[in-house]
């Protein structure tokens, strides 16, 4: 167990393929809850920081949405795998260090070991959310298949074998994100102020994975 000043009330762990809209949807949630209540944690943050330092790269570009990070993605994946093999919780621990808000939104889980770390550290608070979009939509957002990336664990590690608490379809012809995110936002609101609703945190905690 980590040494923490305080524990989160709710940990929403998001996953989804490239260009499914993980950043878009998690930003929406953070904006709705406010940055005092909710923080976005990226497992790729500490990975990119250390990778940039070791390889003399531009960290801001690596963190940004542009094409720069794509040049290094396959190598970053390999580099990260080596670290994870030694210590599967390495990036999870670094990404969550110092987070103070009651609701954590982890925007980029990719492997079962990522989910296992959160389930093990925060069994009561952790919920898993999958973002899905069709290949057609992802292509319209700039995705194209890259061997060694889109067929690797980084993109496929959570394709099966996980029972997600929610699956969000981020498509123009799906129900609105507003509608789909409603139960998640409700749970977050109740988690931070349990007395404001008839549903107490104990009933939230009683939900199974
Ligand atoms: N529902 C949406 N409406 C409008 N634009 C979207 C939507 N979902 C994603 N996008 C856009 O598609 C692109 C990819 O989304 P992003 O959140 O960066 O995906 P990911 O983090 O999964 O790779 C971004 O430019 C983003 O703004
Ligand atoms: C090496 C990575 O951490 C790179 C992740 O970069 P981003 O989190 O920026 O990816 P997308 O939002 O899906 O485009 C992947 C990994 O396997 O750890």
Automatic annotation (TrEMBL):
Record-level GO cellular component terms: cytosol
Keyword Methyltransferase: no
Biased composition (Low complexity): 193-203
Pathway named in the protein's UniProt entry: Isoprenoid biosynthesis; isopentenyl diphosphate biosynthesis via mevalonate pathway; isopentenyl diphosphate from (R)-mevalonate: step 2/3
Residues the entry annotates as binding substrate: 170
Subcellular location: Cytoplasm, Cytosol
Source species, domain of life: Eukaryota
Binding site for ATP: 17-23, 141, 180
Disordered: annotated span: 189-209
Pfam families: P-mevalo_kinase
Single GO term (MF): phosphomevalonate kinase activity
GO biological process, one term: isopentenyl diphosphate biosynthetic process, mevalonate pathway
Main subcellular location of this protein, as a coarse class: cytoplasm
Family annotation (NCBIfam families): Pmev_kin_anim (TIGR01223)
Protein name: Phosphomevalonate kinase
